[in-house]
Amino acid sequence: MLFLMYEEIKKKPKIQLKRLAEFLEPISIEEENFGVVDEILKMCNAYNLFFHQGEIGDWKNYFTTQMSDKLNHTIEENFQGSQLKFSYD
Predict the structure, then answer these.
(1) Does residue 87 belong to any structural domain of this protein?
(2) Cβ distance 55 to 44 under 8 Å?
């Protein structure tokens, strides 16, 4: 199972795209050296696909304190022991 975090995709799209590609099918050293990951980013226009003008932490503009508390509880309950770390910037 692969988890991609929005914040990490936005901060480091090339690294996260490489993780996704390797999860689906490993990238050879030759492909990496040839710039396959960069070409995929260009072809997909990953910035538009992944970001849709969202900003990290923008959720705070839409969630009430009660909604945030409920989500935090649900995340803790469902991801306990998964070693996933969430960024709430």
Answers:
(1) no
(2) no
